[in-house]
Amino acid sequence: MALHSAIKGKLVTVIGDEDTCVGFLLGGVGEINKSRNPNFMVVDKNTSVSEIEECFKRFVRRDDIDIILINQNVAEMIRHCIDSHSQPVPSVLEIPSKDHPYDASKDSILRRARGMFNPDDFK
């Protein structure tokens, strides 16, 4: 049993608009676990902030998830949850969507990384 779990890989999850989720699902990222819980959430104009928060928190608690991909515009809606997540795993990566380009100034992970390093060290 332990060998099986050591060999079994961890999941990438997606929280985003329909186009983003479909793209990753077509790439083979989608999975539904034994409890019938998917590793993705499609966010549309009718999705409440509390639903997004709950999904994010559920993904953070799952031990079979290593990476959470989230559209940056969706991340902005739950910024307090993302900023309070300080564990390295699962890693939270903010990605652009078709309708919302990536803005590095809003990315909390990038802001944290910049705070860890002195830019003069890389010259």
Automatic annotation (TrEMBL):
GO terms for cellular component: proton-transporting V-type ATPase, V1 domain. Pfam families: ATP-synt_F. InterPro entries: ATPase_V1-cplx_f_g_su (IPR008218), ATPase_V1-cplx_fsu_euk (IPR005772), ATPase_V1_fsu_sf (IPR036906). It comes from the Eukaryota. The keyword Transport applies. Gene3D superfamilies: ATPase, V1 complex, subunit F (3.40.50.10580). GO terms for molecular function: proton-transporting ATPase activity, rotational mechanism. Keywords: Hydrogen ion transport, Ion transport, Transport. SUPFAM superfamilies: AtpF-like. V-ATPase is a heteromultimeric enzyme made up of two complexes: the ATP-hydrolytic V1 complex and the proton translocation V0 complex. The V1 complex consists of three catalytic AB heterodimers that form a heterohexamer, three peripheral stalks each consisting of EG heterodimers, one central rotor including subunits D and F, and the regulatory subunits C and H. The proton translocation complex V0 consists of the proton transport subunit a, a ring of proteolipid subunits c9c'', rotary subunit d, subunits e and f, and the accessory subunits VhaAC45 and ATP6AP2. Subunit of the V1 complex of vacuolar(H+)-ATPase (V-ATPase), a multisubunit enzyme composed of a peripheral complex (V1) that hydrolyzes ATP and a membrane integral complex (V0) that translocates protons. V-ATPase is responsible for acidifying and maintaining the pH of intracellular compartments and in some cell types, is targeted to the plasma membrane, where it is responsible for acidifying the extracellular environment. Belongs to the V-ATPase F subunit family. NCBIfam families: V_ATP_synt_F (TIGR01101). This is V-type proton ATPase subunit F. It comes from Diploptera punctata (Pacific beetle cockroach).
